[in-house]
Amino acid sequence: MPFSSEIMGAVVPPGLVGVKASFTGVEDPEAHLTVFHTQMMLSRGSNAVYCKLFMSNLIGIALEWFVSLPDGHITSFQQFSKLFMEQYIVNRAPPVVSYDLFDVRQSQGESLWDYLSRFGAQVVRLPRKDEDMLVHAFKKGVLAGPFSESLIRNRPSTFAEIRRRVVAHIAAETAVSEKRESAIPTKSRAGPSRTQQPMRVHEAKEGKKA
After folding, report:
1. Which terminal CB of the chain, N or C, has fewer other CB atoms within 10 Å?
2. For the chain, which domains are there?
């Protein structure tokens, strides 16, 4: 086993489980490590426990790689992480650069919120953020309509401001839509007219004789 005797002797506390996401050998190793660190942050597990739980996520060719390591070779999680990154660095996603944002455009039929979510996902991956560039790229990608016109009339200064205005715009559209629906009169049930008097019994008989 590639783990040292100290790691092998460590006991994983009951109820402490690893990250649900598995690594097969084709995923982005940096993204997988980030997910692991994030979910294990509050576990307070030891270095040895981290090693064992991280190993439990390896399946397929990734597990075969781990087993092929020399016995007792891994002595810390820092070393394990480094070996893992070196082995699968070719799978690492290329870093996002600022001009990539200009390729993110709102599609026909795509909601404003979905476009904002896709755009924001790319912004998070940027190493450094230029607010003017973010605002310009978002404005360029949004479809022509009331919201894009509002951005032209009153240009936002930050991407955070764009987020707030998108939320406010969607809330206003929802309120207007609900108000229009409530203003549509409902059809009344068909019934006898109030001005029409019911036919008397003797009048009905005379009508039949005639």
Report:
1. C
2. 5-91 (no CATH), 98-183 (1.10.1200)
